[in-house]
Design brief:
Layout lengths: L1 H4 L3 H4 L4 H9 L1 E4 L2 E4 L8 H16 L5 E3 L7 H9 L3 E2 L18 E4 L6 H10 L2 E4 L3 H15 L3 E5 L5 H12 L4 E4 L2 H11 L5 H7 L11 H4 L3 E5 L5 H27 E3 L5 H14 L5 E5 L5 H7 L1 H4 L4 E4 L9 E4 L6 E4 L9 E7 L5 H14 L6
Parallel strand pairs: 2-15, 3-4, 3-5, 5-6, 7-8, 7-9, 9-10, 11-12, 11-15
Antiparallel strand pairs: 1-2, 13-14
Helix pairs in contact: 3-16, 7-8, 9-10, 9-12
Bound molecules: iron/sulfur cluster.
Iron/sulfur cluster binds next to helix 4, helix 7 and helix 13.
């Protein structure tokens, strides 16, 4: 790992001087615009590490065909850069058709920072490919906790998103080890689970509230919800994860009493430090009530989506955008919770002072944030002079 981190070529190419200055100062005035920046945002240690490991692998395996199992991180620009380097994709929307089936021991396969499903890892080992595993150590934490729950006979309740690469990997681990899991996406789904635990609704009613893939087919609510242990996908909204833990604990306290709960409930915070720091820092800036809160990052990035939710707490208009092209007379942004890409009109006051707060997800290069800021300044009619 240290070798990889000593190779800075790729991650340095995503740096931006103006963003670095803003990171230090936290505030910049450009004409009528006041730009506010949290003390923590953008690339996390795990992403830095994954990029450095890719760069090291290119030096270590010159001339070998190189593949990413799926997106390295959830940012379209970074994944496009991987393709430009000649690294193909085995799975996902950019997969090269038939490539996965034709792997040989001459191929090199990079496992993304989110980890991989057990079935994929076994298949890759069988093929004899060289594996470069960039799985973030923070992602391994919930895996370890899950295995402990499993050993103690607990069903793992995951606060996560069904279909997200990290949660898919965790579910596959539980399945592979013969355990049980259930995924709750938010506090509303957790409330339905609490209602089930208290006997207010039955199993089929609970299943109607959850995502169809949130529980395995052979899940038996009566059998499998006697003892539950909670983990979080590392990039969820930390405050919601805590609220979910408290809610389920209170339900089991009511069901099993103070003595019984020691046997039926486990809770362990597996939100990663970078996610927590970025959310805390965004909170600090947004609670100053800027006129706008712009969150920059891939639309499929879980931690970016959750950063966009911070604005809701303070009633600040918040927009999750992917890059500079989103900024125009109609602002193109991802609406929550529908996930649709919508257009906002009159999103920037045409005159008078405007305070704009920014943040960026853990998979967003500073270069993209810098382009967004430059585009906003130009669009508002101001300039840097
Ligand atoms: S967001 Fe957290 S878990 Fe994900 S790669 Fe970064 S440090 Fe690791």
């Amino acid at each position: 790992m240290s070798d990889a981190l000593e190779n800075p070529d790729v991650r340095h190419s995503y740096r931006d001087e103006m963003v670095e200055d803003l990171r230090q100062s936290g505030l910049l005035k450009v004409g009528r615009l006041t730009l506010l920046m949290p003390r923590s945002f953008g690339f996390c240690w795990g992403v830095d590490r994954a990029l450095a490991m890719v760069e090291s692998a290119r030096h270590q395996y010159p001339g070998r065909r190189m593949w990413l199992l799926s997106s390295l991180i959830h940012n379209p620009r970074v994944n496009e850069d991987m393709r430009k380097m000649g690294i193909g994709f085995l799975k996902g929307p950019n997969a090269v058709e038939g490539a996965y089936e034709q792997l040989t021991e001459d191929d090199v396969v990079i496992i993304p920072a989110f980890s991989a499903e057990v079935e994929d890892m076994e298949l890759l080992k069988q093929c004899g490919v060289a594996i470069v595993d960039t799985t973030c150590p923070w992602v391994i934490k919930p895996h370890k906790r899950t295995l402990r729950y499993l050993k103690e006979g607990f069903t793992t309740v995951i606060h996560g998103t069904v279909g997200h690469d990290e949660t898919r990997a965790t579910c596959s681990l539980v399945n592979h080890e013969g355990g049980r899991f259930l995924v709750v996406h938010d506090i509303d789904e957790a409330a339905a689970l609490a209602d089930y635990l208290l006997g207010k609704i039955d199993g089929p009613e609970l299943q109607k509230v959850l995502h169809p893939m949130a529980i395995p087919e052979d899940f038996d609510c009566q059998r499998d919800l006697r003892k539950i242990g909670i983990i979080n996908q590392t990039t969820m909204l930390a405050s919601e994860s805590r609220a979910i833990g408290d809610l389920l604990k209170a339900a089991l306290m009511e069901r099993d009493g103070e003595d019984g709960i020691a046997e039926s409930f486990r809770d362990f915070d597996t939100i990663c430090r970078a996610t927590q720091d970025n959310q805390d820092a965004a909170n600090t800036v947004v609670k100053e009530h800027p006129d706008l809160f712009i969150v920059v990052g891939g639309y499929d990035s879980s931690n970016t989506r959750n950063l966009a939710r911070v604005g809701d707490y303070y009633d600040v208009p918040s927009f999750h955008i992917e890059g500079p092209d989103c900024i125009a007379a109609s602002l193109s942004y991802r609406e929550r919770p529908s996930g649709e890409i919508l257009q906002a009109e009159n999103w920037l006051p045409s005159e008078g002072p405007v305070r704009v707060a920014f943040t960026a997800g853990a998979s967003t290069p500073d270069t993209i944030l810098g382009q967004v800021i430059n585009r906003l300044v130009a669009y508002s009619g101001e300039n840097w002079a």
